[in-house]
Amino acid sequence: MLYTKILVAVDGSEGSFTALHNGNELARHMGAELTLLYVTNEVALPLYGGVHPGGVASTAVEVRDAEIVEQSHGEEVLNKAIRRVDPEIKTTTAILHGDPPVTICGYADSHNIDLIVIGNRGHSGFKKLFLGSVSQKVVSNAHQPVLVAK
């Protein structure tokens, strides 16, 4: 199969840069376009006041500040990623906000992506069972082929 539009989900982890390497090579060999996608983490306001674990803000101002930090981190990750892409490849970048598996699959559907390339962080045992895996959820829910880079 010939892929013409490849989406690589990047989050700054080594696994995502391994995925980027694979996506870059596929795009180069197939003459495909490459899209690099970063999905910002969601920051939630708690239902009740008090002390909250990481990832939960206690005020709307903290949510806004956390979103600004996430946006900045996403831009940094995408800048680092774009420098690793063959300059001959037509490449676009995007930063979106939402649940990563849902956002990745939704973007792929709405932009006629032929292949999703994603890294695997390698969680195992209880942590994998409890947290699940973004790559596992993308594989389960995507309408396109998914390459999980290890």
Automatic annotation (TrEMBL):
Q: Where in the cell is it found?
A: Cytoplasm
Task: Tell me the ranges covered by the UspA domain, including all copies.
Answer: 3-150
Q: Which organism is it from?
A: Fictibacillus phosphorivorans
Looking up Gene3D superfamilies in the UniProt record yields: HUPs
Say if the entry is tagged with keyword Cell inner membrane: no
Entry GO CC? cytoplasm
User: Which family is annotated?
Assistant: Belongs to the universal stress protein A family.
Tell me what this protein is called.
Universal stress protein
Keywords for this protein: Cytoplasm
